[in-house]
Amino acid sequence: MRTNVYLLSYAPLISILLFSTSLAIATTELALHWLDQVGVYDELLQLLTARDTKLVVWMGFLIVYFMIFSSLKLLSDTINQLGFAFFIKEQEGTTLSMLRPGSILLLVGGCVSFAFMTSFLHVGIVLLVSFFIYFIFYTVQISKMTTAAGAVGLIIFSFLAWGVLLAGLSWVGLTLFNSFGEAILFPS
User: Are 155 and 86 in contact (CB under 8 A)?
Assistant: First the structure.
């Protein structure tokens, strides 16, 4: 019996929603605890109820995490397909369909993250373990589709692309942090 080939097409979206939700819940707990320590939480309770405050903070973090994971998914697909253009020679496009079942691994990871949604550290560990398991799946599938040199080239290309991207983002983040710190500590 054949199944619909697009059955797994929603797995990445659901995975993003699951990881975003569990990270947002964990971050909300941390943020509300920090706001309470700073003394801002009592002021917020004068404007909103405790439930509404928690909901607003959670929605804010949910939107931020959803945007981050969605943009990472878009970048990952772009880097992946660019690497395929360089290192995999095929006419039919079956490579992407062989990688599609890997989204189930991230979907399972998203479900597991709900068990640890009150701990930011544990959700982060589940996310990293899910990425590592997907990387192993990716490597095995790529090695089936191309030569050893093509597989190594594709993996090195992916690591270099992500490395350049993360280094650039880190540089921008540190530059902004440095400029804010300089403006606060040494005002003109």
Answer: no
Give the closest residue to 138 by CA, choosing from 114, 165, 168, 162.
162
Q: Are 26 and 118 in contact (CB under 8 A)?
A: yes
- Domain membership flag for residue 74: yes
Quick: pLDDT tens for 113-138: 989 988 889 999 999 999 999 999 98
Residue numbers of the domain that contains 135: 11-185
**Tally of domains in the chain:** 1
Which stretch of DSSP H or E encloses residue 37? Answer: helix 11-38
pTM equals 0.85
pLDDT for res 174: 93
Q: How far apart are CA 72 and CA 47, in angstroms?
A: 35
Residue 183 phi/psi, 5° resolution?
-65, -35
